[in-house]
Amino acid sequence: MRKKNSLLGLLTLLPRLFRLGRKHPVLLLVIFGLGLGGYGYEVKIARPALLYQGAPQALDAKNIDTWFRILRNHGFILGYSDLRGNPLWVEYALSPETNTPPLKRPSRFETDWRGINRVSHDSYQKSGYDRGHMAPNYAISHLYGREGQADSFLMTNITPQKPKLNQQLWQRLEEMEIKYFAKNHGKIWVITGPVFSGTVERLSSDWTVEIPDAFYKIYITEAAPGNTPLTLGFLIPQTVNGKEPLEQFVTSIDHIEAQTGLDFFAQLDDRTEAALEAAVKPQSWDLQAINK
């Protein structure tokens, strides 16, 4: 509600600024300069702080299925597709868990005022699909507080997941990433999102929301200068029974890029990027021991 009221206030303010600018053009130039400064801060400072080696890029700029708008939130950032009613990628950083008291889980998800298609909590009602977090409630609320938790419950962070995936295997992976991956490796970066392939299928309860066929997660450590980061990739279909071992779904980042049409870590030098994205080395993450 706070963000919606801010938007209404801005729409009310614009005509007043136009009238003021006609009377005082110098003042209008000052306001315009401040606006450019705000945009520069967003693009050059605020967004890069939430990204590791740049934002994901579409491999084919002409493919509208991979078009997205970047939305910055408290503690995470995402690329949202209004065409698909899904975030195509969500990125956040994890550090070792602290003894922060847990926050009460909100009872409802909120429509994001920035979303053109106005997906709501009720859009998933009786659809047979869960509202699946991409930036997870538990980790975001522990590391980024109540404001981060509230942003994680915006519908632009949500995608349709079958219950056995969302409530079992995906939940297990979300728990492992903060309790074990971050604990063992220090600060790590996570990129996650849906994968679409084959025939387009949409929610019966809201045609603006497309149903993914699978989901991916990419982990990369923030290595010290001169050291090579460690990476780990998962590609998990909607059809899981929820009890499978996680190592069954390990894959390369190259394979995830081929499935999503997105290019990750574009700012890495080409040689390092090629080596990291081709590698499949789950041993460094001790998956078998963690699974037990």
From TrEMBL:
Protein's UniProt keywords contain Nuclease: yes
Keywords from the named record: Endonuclease, Hydrolase, Metal-binding, Nuclease
Every DNA/RNA non-specific endonuclease/pyrophosphatase/phosphodiesterase domain range: 72-271
InterPro entries: DNA/RNA_non-sp_Endonuclease_sf, Endo_G_ENPP1-like_dom, ENPP1-3/EXOG-like_nuc-like, His-Me_finger_sf, Non-specific_endonuclease
Keyword Repressor among record annotations: no
Active-site residues, as the UniProt record annotates them: H133
Designated name of the protein: DNA/RNA non-specific endonuclease
Stored PANTHER family: ENDONUCLEASE G, MITOCHONDRIAL, ENDONUCLEASE RELATED
Residue ranges of every copy of the ENPP1-3/EXOG-like endonuclease/phosphodiesterase domain listed in the record: 73-271
Pfam family, one: Endonuclease_NS
Residues annotated as binding Mg(2+): N166
Gene Ontology terms, MF aspect: endonuclease activity; hydrolase activity; metal ion binding; nucleic acid binding
